[in-house]
Amino acid sequence: MTPEQLAELITLRHELHKIPEVSGDEEKTARQIQSYLRQNSPDQLLTGLGGHGVAAIYNGQAEGQTVLIRCELDGLPIEEVSDHAYRSTHQGRGHLCGHDGHMVMVAALAKELAQQRPRQGRVVLLFQPAEETGKGAAAVIADPRFAEIAPDFAFSLHNLPGLEVGKIALCNGVANCASRGMRIKLTGKTSHAAAPQDGVSPATALSHLLTELPALGGGENLGPDFALVTLTHANLGEATFGIAPGEAEIWTTLRCVTDRRMEQLIAEATDLVQQCADAEGLGVQIEFDDIFEACTNHPEASAILAEAAANAGSPAEIQEQPQRWSEDFGQFGKQAKSAMFWLGSGEDQPQLHNPDYDFPDAAIPVGVAVFKEAIDVILNDDALRNSS
Ligand SMILES: [Zn+2]
Ligand SMILES: [Zn+2]
């Protein structure tokens, strides 16, 4: 990548960084991406995919396989803390997961493909909405136009704080944990604070659940039995001194390495809630949200990424354990041979979703090179690969 090309991508990242939008709300971001893609003459440009999703399609010179490269459009509902000139201009919103960096790496591929189409098959550059809520990938796949895309392979990356900038890591098997939000509502009956015996308070059940739910999964040993239950929110009655409460709400996140263990954990948590509610004569309502299945790398797709990283001059370090966080990219694994890799964003880098996180621009050329090589491995023959 020439210094001029990198400078153009950095400018684009900073523009995107200034306008972070939360999941499902990525209108301005999608517009900016569409305008960049239009300048790079795709054969087809799909917009409004599964929400604000955008896909640019580049056809090869002959029939062949379809390779999808996916990045994410969304930012986070977190106020950015930084003094960069390009800091967020949207109050309470920040690109604090590095999706701005991911987008420009995929945008860079558009420029490459505009200059040189693949020898065979086609490349789909997908800018997916709503990754952070786990809803976007499924929405894109459910869009009737996705049936036409029907990828054979799907690749993605996530930047990884803690790994040296530009280094590549890869997981064989599960790459990201399954997780889901569990919203528990307990309903009793309010009464005068002077006569709590006349009501049904959820306070006792709540206090049990606050200790017993986390005890279902302490998060030890990131193997197939891994289970972690994290309380994220709780509420009891109203903020008043005159009323004994009649309602309580608890939110908790369940996390497992495998979807099978997740099924068990859901059953265990549901039983526990039901028992606590029954013991106090409370009504109970359970809802699940932010549902992520385990994201698993397909062996063939994973091997292609390893080859691509080696060809790009950044051989992948193989990691034995998955990341504890979740990714809805796993959804594409139901349609295609899919795999994702980690791109180091620095050993001293703040963690993802920290208010002072910022994607390191120095990692851009490495991510672009690995994607480019993966496309080459599948769609271009050796002669063409050597000439590029
Ligand atoms: Zn994130
Ligand atoms: Zn992310």
What do you see in this structure?
This protein is an alpha/beta fold and 388 residues long. The protein folds into two domains: 3-174 and 295-387, Zn peptidases (Aminopeptidase); 178-292, Alpha-Beta Plaits. Helices cover 32% and strands 28% of the residues. The protein has ten helices and 16 strands. The chain has helices at 3-18, 27-38, 99-115, 136-142, 146-149, 203-215, 259-280, 299-311, 364-379, 382-387, and strands at 44-49, 53-59, 62-72, 120-128, 153-160, 168-171, 173-176, 178-187, 191-192, 227-236, 243-244, 247-256, 283-292, 295-297, 317-319, 337-344. It has an eight-stranded mixed β-sheet, sandwiched between helices. A four-stranded antiparallel β-sheet has the order 10-12-8-13, with helices on one face. The longest helix is centred in the last third of the chain and has 22 residues, at 259-280. The termini are close together. The structure holds zinc ion (ZN) (2 copies). One zinc ion (ZN) binds at residues 97, 99, 158.
